[in-house]
Amino acid sequence: MKTKIHLTLVLFFLFFYSSYAQYYGNGFFCYTCDFGIEIGGTASNINGLDTSEKAGIYIGIYNSYEFNDTWAIRYGLGYANLGARSKEYKTNVVLHTMLIEPISVHYSFKNKFKTFTGVNIGSTIVSKNPYNEEEPGMTLFGKGIKFMDMSVFAGAGYKLTENIDLNLKYDLGLTNINDIEGSKDKWKKNWLTLSVAYTFR
After folding, report:
1. 146 with 125: CB under 8 angstroms?
2. Neighbouring-strand partners of residue 145
3. 61-94 burial code (b ≥16 CB/10 A, e <16)
4. What pTM, to 2 d.p., does this model score?
5. For 139-190, what is each residue's pLDDT tens digit?
6. End-to-end CA distance of the chain
């Protein structure tokens, strides 16, 4: 089940990418934007629970627009396998999350280094929540986890070549994702992403 979910979501993004990539020369919804793809790993946790970090993957596609050699903006879509390792149940809380990055601002210096900050809107498509006694297993649009959430992020990057960037960013959850009836606990997901991005210029 877990492998099928990963493959389905990854194939969805690859299909979208293949359709999307034909626009990369001029961007998508932006004639002068550059198109890119980003792949990496995540280390996530959920504040408000007795948990430890969980490893996952991240895949993203994006457009970027450079105002000059220093300032740029970026927006795109992504998939992240997030969650945490429950110490009480000795199993993972799993959040297969689609991410929308409305916009992020990037500042570059010395032609190699950059910092950036922005906002993500997430939607949890498939989840596993052992704290929900009604549906403790992997479920589609499962109860106990809010469908929509928001996070802010900040990070830094290094340009390896003209087209390839190495990026490290941290997302701080703003939304209480706990939707279990009668529960007053606040759960907020946070995650660290290390990724490699390739921009078609």
Report:
1. no
2. 178
3. bbbbbbeeeeebbbbbbbbbbbbbbbeeeeebbb
4. 0.84
5. 888 889 999 999 999 999 999 999 999 999 999 999 999 999 888 899 999 9
6. 38
